[in-house]
Each structure stands twice: as structure tokens, then as C-alpha cells.
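Entry 14. Structure prediction run on the chain below.
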Amino acid sequence: MINERKLSKNLPVVKNDNLIYARYNSTQTGMKIIYIAASKIKSDDMALKEFFFSVKEFCEMLEIKNTGKYDKLKKACESLIQSYVHIETEKGWKLYPWFHHIEYLEHEGIFKVQFHEYLAPYLLYVKNNIYTKISLHSVLSLNSQYSMRFYEICSQSLKYKNTAEKIIELKELKLMFGIDKDEYPKYGNFKQKVLLQAQKEINEKADVYFEFEEYKEARKVVEIKFSIRRNNQKQEKEELLEKYQRQMKMTKEELSEELQRTLLEKYDCFIASDYIYCFHRNAIQATIDGISENEFNLRDKNKAIVFFKRVLENKHTKYNSEK
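Output returned:
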């Protein structure tokens, strides 16, 4: 059975919290394959289905350049099919494979992928009692597999709230990330290569923000406390961009109704959409943008109707003169 959900960075990824804190290691490309595959799962899916995607759309999502893209994807898929997830249980632990199969159809340029059925309780909405929604857009913007894992931890910690604190043992953190004992034997190396890199990347690119504090015993770092909050400025910029893109697809009639709603909500000011429609489309769009960006200095809301009619008239004159 094939899942037809189209690839989009706007889709959420759902993971059971136990899977977020599971132990596994993967490459950057491998991690992104997992995220994109999980984003294809629908909220009403009762089983993990097979789905397909073209190499072209997949590489566009991952921003993989044409040079060597097939070899890069093949290596990532080979690594994933051999890897496993280690989940701690009350009685011990369980090991799960990520995928049932990954198939490539060379002539069609298509990949077919299906998660292993054992992961159903950890990836399906309907079988998940405790799960976290992860922003695919944010996580795909990250370039380190460790940044992606930290982003998951931040997202899980911030469920239903704007700030959170999380304390994780250094030993457990390394196990979660699949870091070998010999890879970063000194904490300074781990801090430089993993912690600080992830912090910089997440704080600059994602919709969350974190700082950390080291807890020591006998002068040795044993735990790390993460202070996490939502990156509202980043989130607001993304929401404004999304709103602008949505407005660009609107008809002039829909845009006029959008401005009518905006004026009513923000200034308690009613100007009929039929009246607004008479003005240049760019004048309507520019007025909406100006309101979003707090461009207008309106001191008396009682004069809002006259004020914004004049704004529309001035912008209309401007755009007509540019023809």
C-alpha cells in the first residue's frame, strides 16, 4: 500500500517521546530521510504504509546538489537499513530496525520506503499516547545530526509551554546520540564539536532557543542543564513569510476581504471590502504589509476609517503612476 501524501516542509513530524530519547546514531542525510519519511504519515493512518518519492523532489527538500546525489542517497539508505533504535523499557531494552525496506527504481528515478511495523507505536498518531510534534521546516534547516537530536529534545521539553528546563546526564546524552567512548573522550571536545555547534545552529535557524549549564562532581562534568524557550522572533518571521506567501496566492477579492478583517481586528475599523476592491491590488497588499510591520502611526483610532482610506488612495496613486 502506498501513501500518496506529497512532500512538503510544512508537514509536521510526530514521534513518541520514548523514540525522542532513544539511543541511535545516524548520518545527517540519514536523519533527514527519517524525518521526511515520518512526515508522510497521516493522522488517521492505522498502519505504517509504503510510500514513494522521486529523487528530484527528495534532493530539493534536502538541498542536495546534483553532483553525486545518487551515491550520497544510496550510502545513506544502506546505512539506515543496517541501523537500529535502542529503547529502554521497564524490564530492560528493545532493539528495533528503522525500515522494513528501501527500494530504488532506477529507470523511474523513484525511491520506495516503508518503516518497520515494530515502530508503529512510536510513529503513528493513533497509537501514540505520548508524542511530540516536530517542525519539519526547522529540523531540515539544521546541518548536524546532533543539532537535530537536540532540537527534538527542545521541542519535547516545550510541549504546552513557552519555557522549560531539562537535566540530562552526560553519559546518557552520549548514549542517546550513539557516540562511541573513544570519539570524544574529553568533555572539552564534546562541548566544542557537539554542544556548542548544536546550540549555535539551533539558536540561529530554528523556532526554539537553548542555553546550557554544566554540573560537576569532583571537577568533572556529569550532568548538563538545558534552559529552553521558544524562539518567538524566528517563529514570528516564519509566520509573516507564510502569511505573505498565502496572500500572494489570493485573488484581489480575497485580498480585499483580508484587509477588511485586519482593519476590524486591529483598529475596530470597518471599511467595506467592495470599497477596498476599487484600489490597485499592490496598494491593498502594501497596506496589509504596513499594518503587519507597524508602519502606520495612528494616534486616534476614531479616525482610522479616514486615515486608511487616505493610505489606500496614496498607495493607489503611487502604483498607478508606476505603470
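The mean pLDDT is 88.
Filed with the rest of this week's runs.
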